[in-house]
Amino acid sequence: MSNLCVEGDEHMFRIAICDDERQFRKRIHDILIEYMNENDILYEIDEFESGKDFISLGINLAKYDIVFLDVNMDELDGMETAQKIRKVSNDVFIVFVTAFITCAPQGYSVGAIRYILKNNVNFPELIFECMDAISLNMNYVAQKKKFNFNEGTKIVALERLLYIESRLHKLEFLHYGGQVKKIFNIWQTR
């Protein structure tokens, strides 16, 4: 399954989720989409059912910025998958997402940025924190501007903004690709 949001942007996050359990792939996928949308970041997310499927990409696996890996998978486990990733690229951020803490120290040998337990009650917050850390490491800091509207304060990423149009006391924001239109009522001070 692939989720694509506007191709051709240099700041797009390319993410792979590699887990043999469909419900965990979906959970991580949904949390990542929420994070990307909240932070107005372009993204592409691909899912893989096994380490073997992911590694079959060969040199093309280096296109990913971030790989979320389950440790306990059949055929090729997460640690073996991470070792094979490192043979192709040292630039990929590896995040282990697993139900087992026992392999955490081994994760450092492949340069994993995080080791997140699936059953942690703060799982979504940990994914968000991990993505914040990766964004800092990638030096990805989008310029943003705050606007005050009747609906409240809105933050807009300037790099994706094509134009702002004023119509009948409303502002229409058109983002790159024409996919996102946001209309807000102009804030009036009285």
TrEMBL record:
Secretion signal span: none
Keywords carried by this UniProt record: Phosphoprotein
Modified residues (4-aspartylphosphate): 70
InterPro entries: Bact_response_regulator, CheY-like_superfamily, Sig_transdc_resp-reg_receiver
Protein name according to UniProt: Stage 0 sporulation protein A homolog
Taxonomic superkingdom: Bacteria
One BP annotation, GO: phosphorelay signal transduction system
Function of the protein: May play the central regulatory role in sporulation. It may be an element of the effector pathway responsible for the activation of sporulation genes in response to nutritional stress. Spo0A may act in concert with spo0H (a sigma factor) to control the expression of some genes that are critical to the sporulation process.
Span of domain Response regulatory: 14-133
Gene3D superfamilies listed in its UniProt record: 3.40.50.2300
